[in-house]
Amino acid sequence: MTGYQPISCDLYDWLEIAARWQLPVTLTGRDGRQWADRIRTIEAREGVEYLLLQGGERLSLADLASLELLWQGEEKRIRF
Description:
- This protein has 1 helix and 6 strands.
- The chain is α+β, with helices and mostly antiparallel strands.
- A 6-stranded antiparallel sheet has the order 4-3-2-1-5-6.
- The longest helix has 12 residues, at 9-20.
- It is globular and about 35 Å long.
- Pfam families: ROF (PF07073).
C-alpha cells in the first residue's frame, strides 16, 4: 500500500488491550462502516498492519476511524 502511515503507539496500545482481553469492540472505518466484534489478533503483511476479527473480517489499521470499548467500567472512544 503506497503512503501507508502506521498509527501511533498510544492508539495501537488500545487495540492490543482489546485483543488481549477479548473485549467487545465497535470499530468504525473511514468510510462509515461499523463492525461490532472482538479482535482475534493483529498482524502485519507486506508492511501493512491489520486487525483480524472473530467474525473473520480483516481490517487495515489505516482504514480505521475509531474504536469504542468498555474498559474498567468506563466507555472509551478512541479516534485514529
